[in-house]
Amino acid sequence: MLCVIADITDRKLAEQQLIEHHDMLGAIIENFPGGVSMFDTHLRLTAHNQRFRQLLDFPDALLDNPELSYQDLIRFNAQRGEYGPCDVEQYVAASVTRALQFEPHKFERVRPNGVVLEIHGQPVPGGFETIYIDITERKKIEAQVHQLAFYDPLTRLPNRRMLGDRLNQTMALSKRSARYAAIMILDLDNFKALNDTLGHAVGDLLLQQAAKRMKACVREVDTVARLGGDEFVVLLGDLDTDKAASTTQANSIAEKIRAALAEPYSLTIKHEGKADAVIEHQCTASIGVVVFIDNEGSPEDFLKWADSAMYRAKDAGSNLIRFFDLNA
């Protein structure tokens, strides 16, 4: 009878350390504030946390499958419309091809429920891991900051800063396409009297209605902006390659705006403790227009010339359109 005794203390210690390391890694993953998933080199899911289930809305029955693969998850998502309309198997094949490259990546994805995820993927020994961060609130705050920085809070129209960007873009387009553009400055003719007699709240209602009327008169690609007070700018791009034809187009739109703004406004006056009163107010606009092509001036020039034409319209009796002649 042969009896062999071996000291396996080191092996047992190593095994215990491995178990402790595995448990520690599991605890780190589970307590991570974002979603975490880990796949091996054969694209089998080896680890994930509860936040991953929550952020991606994966059912327990799916993730509890010990043989679950990356392909299975992509197919499940594609079938429930997570990626929009697509050929499911083609999408799965393309996704698997990318995953097998094991390259770091970062992108944002908007889920059908409106949640915005920032997704980070990176290779790790034995496979790759992906981290999912919910940035929905951050995106909302960024949108609010952008709105405050570039849009007028009262009318929701672009402000002077945004207008500057749009004007530069329009000039660049004019240079590339050799097409004319036009800029209009509009000033409401009898707005101050309304503000002085009935107050700013009623004046604000008129400005909001005027903004909506102007936007309804132009194309989606055009810009209606508020400079401040009762002064607005309309920017028309991509007109004709012929200046006379472009002038005709600009005049037609200016006349459409002038007529729309001259229609009576129904304004509600609120009195504390009393019934609301609705008044009808007439308000016209004086409009100055410059038809230009890129190399005829700077953004400041075009605004100055349109403003000059607008004051000529006011001086001539208001509720009129005047063009600035660049050749005069």
From TrEMBL:
EC number annotated for this UniProt entry: 2.7.7.65
Gene3D superfamilies the record matches: 3.30.70.270, PAS domain
Keywords: Nucleotidyltransferase, Transferase
Keyword Transferase: yes
UniProt cross-references to SUPFAM superfamilies, sorted A to Z: Nucleotide cyclase, PYP-like sensor domain (PAS domain)
Record InterPro entries: DGC-Regulatory_Protein (IPR052163), GGDEF_dom (IPR000160), Nucleotide_cyclase (IPR029787), PAS-assoc_C (IPR000700), PAS-like_dom_sf (IPR035965), Rev_trsase/Diguanyl_cyclase (IPR043128)
UniProt domain GGDEF: residue ranges: 179-326
Domain PAC: 1-20
Gene Ontology MF: a single term: diguanylate cyclase activity
PANTHER family: DIGUANYLATE CYCLASE DGCT-RELATED, SLL0267 PROTEIN
The protein's name: Putative diguanylate cyclase YcdT
Gene encoding the protein: ycdT_12
